[in-house]
Amino acid sequence: MRVAALLLGLLPAARAFAALPSSTSSRLSSAGGTSLRSTAAAVAGDSAASAVAGDSVEFAKYEGLGNDFILIDDRDRVDPSLTPEQSERLCNRNFCVGGDGVIFALKAPEDKQIEGDYDFTMRIYNSDGSEPEMCGNGIRCLAQFLKDLGEDSETAESYRINTLAGPIVPVMNPDGGITVDMGEPILDGPSVPTTLAPNSEHNSVLEQTHTCNGKEWKISMVSMGNPHAIIFVDDLENDIDFESDGPALESDTGAFPAKTNVEFVQVMSPTHLKMKVWERGAGPTLACGTGTCALVVAAIRAGKIPRPGKEGVRVTLPGGDLFIEWREENNRVYMTGPAMLSFKGSAMLK
User: Fold this and answer.
1) Helix 136-148 crosses helix 289-301 at what angle (to 10 degrees)?
2) Is 212 designated active site?
3) How far is CA 265 from CA 53, 185, 275, 296, in A?
4) Which of 215, 221, 261 is CA-nearest to residue 241?
5) N or C: the chain end with fewer CB closer than 10 Å?
6) Distance between CA 224 and CA 184 in Å, rounded?
């Protein structure tokens, strides 16, 4: 257990942290400044990020199985109040708050071309400043954040969230867990996207041979709104060089034009899978919700495991377990797992 996490967990209402300077142009500290929430409220609806030097950024830190995020309350805005560069600096674990990404809780879309009745919009910047389409652990953290802000839904405490991957619906369960309707998996190879030759039904890529980093892999491609390359191995500890193979596969744009998340998976039993993930734009993380959904779909399609009932498949990640159900009657994937508040605070942009 990380000592810092334990101490911060005992002080969920803490409002400050010590931040060390990284450069004269990109420092953050914890003292003084105008509240960014006040600034944002004054420019509600403005599509441009409003944060400037001297603004105090109020945040809440949440984690889903150790996949940790900085949550920003932008419910009065259409677009994020921080730039990708500012978000990247916030995610720096040595000089600032630290996190796998920054998540913005935004108002429902006002664009009439976006179909659907939404409660909120989610945007996320990875720790490298890139923007993914969706994040499974992140949307559970967003749902818990909204509930903690007092946004109690009238229908079973569920929220209809607009994301770049389409509508996502997290439901707050009585036991404290959160079940997310992650939608239908995208199997069509070019739509994932990948240039690997389709070799299975639905024009999909299933255990297709591909050489990368001097090794031959059997890769299955699935999109849950973002691309995933799933590789089954006999032994997660001995069959891969995680720190070398992960980034090589992620950035192999000849095969994965938009880059890709990479999941290495070991089958433990017909209802239990174990995985390590190298996330696009974040590197090694303790958990990946969309990746967990994608690998269960790939495992069932490749005949590695049978399709389970409503109890789902247990997937063990470095940060803990998620439970995934791929329902045959509607082709939708459901993910159940936790999301917890770690602490609150503020940081001044410089």
Assistant:
1) 140
2) no
3) 44, 18, 4, 10
4) 215
5) N
6) 7
Report the C-alpha gap between 227 and 234 in whole angstroms: 23
Residue with tokens 């734009």, as numbered in its chain: 281
Q: Is the pTM of this model over 0.85?
A: no
Residues composing the chain: 350
Residue 174's alpha-carbon distances to 179, 309, 314, 335, in angstroms, are: 11, 21, 20, 16
Please name the residue that has the structure tokens 């803990």: 320
Q: Model confidence over 82-126: pLDDT tens digits?
A: 999 999 999 999 989 999 999 999 999 887 556 668 999 999 999
Point out the catalytic residue in the list 135, 141, 212, 293. Answer: 135
- Residue located via tokens 């400043």: 129
C-beta separation of 125 from 88 below 8 A: yes
Instruction: Please name the residue that has the structure tokens 């495991």.
Output: 305
Rounded Cα distance, 230 and 288, in Å: 13
Local structure of residue 176 (DSSP, 8 states): S
For 128-146, give one letter per residue: b (16+ CB within 10 A) or e: ebbebbbbbbbbbbbbbbb
The rounded Cα 34 to chain-centroid distance in angstroms is 30
Q: What is the DSSP letter of 79?
A: S
**Phi, psi angle pair for 164, to nearest 5°:** -70, -15
Catalytic site residue from 96, 212, 288, 293: 288
Task: Confirm whether 288 is a catalytic residue.
Answer: yes
